[in-house]
Design a protein that fits this description.
SH3 type barrels, seven-stranded mixed β-sheet, alpha/beta, 3 helices
């Protein structure tokens, strides 16, 4: 099931009229979204989206990995900027090998870490190679591809899908903490 299937309000319907997706996404529709890596290996699914109430931005997505029917699964706080929304395949891409993810700092559902602890946050960002001073991540639009080794890094500028908007830092359509940069 993808975010398009969980869309109770018709935000992402295929039509000629403009809607919020994929530049703006409902958090509720992203819960349960599949996460794969650049080699198309399934890594798990999104269980929660953590909001930083001080900066008013998305800080982490909680990724569930392993286990069977919720038993024995490990949870990982993945910096939001490490995830890329693949709108063509309606899933997230995380550029981490499955064996490396097994060694990521994680936790179980009964012992959540203090996600506001800066030392903990810095260790998470170091593991995923993300910048703790920058929030958000670029979307991967249809045709952008997520082939092996093709994820790379991004300047964070994504084009706003509305005509006439180029998505640069001075464009009002640029929204920090979202998947458009």
């Amino acid at each position: 099931m993808s975010y398009a299937d969980r869309d109770k309000y018709g935000m992402y319907k295929e039509s000629s009229s403009a809607g919020p997706g994929p530049s703006l996404m409902g958090a509720d529709t992203l819960l349960g979204e599949k996460v794969v890596n650049a080699y198309d290996v399934e890594l798990g699914d999104i269980k929660e989206i953590m909001l930083d109430m001080q900066t008013c931005q998305v800080a982490y997505a909680v990724l569930a990995f392993g286990g069977f029917m919720g038993m024995g699964e490990k949870l990982f706080a993945v910096p939001w900027q490490a995830l890329h929304l693949d709108t063509a395949n309606k899933r997230f891409v995380l550029n981490v090998d499955k064996d490396r993810l097994k060694t990521a700092p994680g936790f179980n559902k009964d012992a959540w870490p203090d996600m506001a602890d800066m030392q903990w946050a810095n260790s998470i960002h170091a593991f995923y190679g993300t910048d703790p001073s920058r929030q958000g991540a670029p979307s991967m639009a249809p045709g952008a591809g997520a082939g092996a080794g093709d994820l790379g890094t991004s300047s964070g500028n994504s084009l706003d899908p509305r005509a006439g908007n180029q998505g640069g830092d001075t464009d009002i359509s640029r929204i920090r903490g979202s998947n458009i940069g």
